[in-house]
Amino acid sequence: MPGSGTSGHPVQRILIANRGEIAVRIIRACREMGIETVAVYSTADAESLPVRLADQAVCIGPPPSARSYLVRENLIMAALNTDCQAIHPGVGFLSENAAFARLVTEKGLLFIGPDPGIIELLGDKVRARDTARRFGLPVTPGTGEAVCDPVLAGEAAAGLGFPVIVKAAAGGGGKGMRIVRAPEDLAENLSIARAEAEANFADGRGFIARYLEKPRHEELQILSDGAGKVAVLGERDCSVQKNHQKLIEESPSPGVNGEMRRLMAEGAVRMFGELGYRGAGTIEFLVEGENFYFMEVNARVQVEHPVSEFVTGADIIRQQILACTQGRIELEAGEAPISGWAIECRINALSPGRVSRLDIPGGPGVRFDSFLYGGCQVPPNYDSMVAKLIVHAPNRNEALARMDRALGELSIEGIKTNREQQRWIIRDGVFRSGSFGAAYYGAVAGRIAEET
Question: Is 331 in the same domain as 444?
């Protein structure tokens, strides 16, 4: 049976409640599936590529996200007025907003994502940790419930041993997160973390866990039909980050062995299957030595999904839409076979402006996902990522060589980007060795700045 909230039959038109590269990606998948698309846009995005490519486009407000892409009622009205049957939230913005998902379904539309109750459960890091434990997944030692009282926090931290990390229960992107290395610093950092969490997420609750100094950041890509069938599309290493924002992702990971991969996948299948999860999702882990620890779930498609598409051959957006509209996926349950090695570099704009020239790399195993075109305007109002460059090759060394070549061919004139910084990392000996963790970028940031 299809999962709750699915129509059981194909939809004819989907509204894309997002912008930029992910909107382009969804439009392309829908066109191949014979589904019409409606793009939404702020006035800053009036000439954007999604507006050009979609079958229809609707303006939803001025440039600030709070007055356009985050206005739930405007998105719903746009979908209803254009006779859409479903809304795809993309990534970021309202993609993991349970209230939005609930409003979508209340208005008789399909939400391309899991049920609102599951979004709420997994979006709360304290409840998500408890859920992971219930399905046999290890979590970093820490408090089993939210801790707000400084005295109780001190007792918990003393039991765990310093350093510890204070994390917002509803957090993300490094907000509401503080590393504490000494007992006398705990109360102040707890207060700061609570204030940040309240300001950013309207939820000041937080928990305390043992801090891992140099873990690897790994994540498993899953697809599930909402009725217990779960496919695992391998892991991605996302350890190269700047200010908690991912820069480079690769699959498979040089830091995950076969036994660890099997245990991670088995836990993911149990958890997502028994929860009745529907659509695409990612389960994230911290890895230290031979140990792995559940960190969180992203109840949506991830920016870096093309890495998993390259090594499995699956169209993740297509499967996500099928799961959420028809209650089915076209993949076998369990671990999908992995072929070769894929690497993704995120290309970020370091300044807004108009793209005067764009040279896109090509050749075997090269993919460029972007909303850029020659003459387009990159506005200052949104996330800095303007493109993703992804390569695939038989092994990691060949994939690194291919990425270096592709980065060299890429030219974006008119705006500043981080292309040279990415090329520096790809050529760096430590990165090429595969022996690095989440502290990698911080350790080499000065050298990158000097040499680029």
Answer: yes
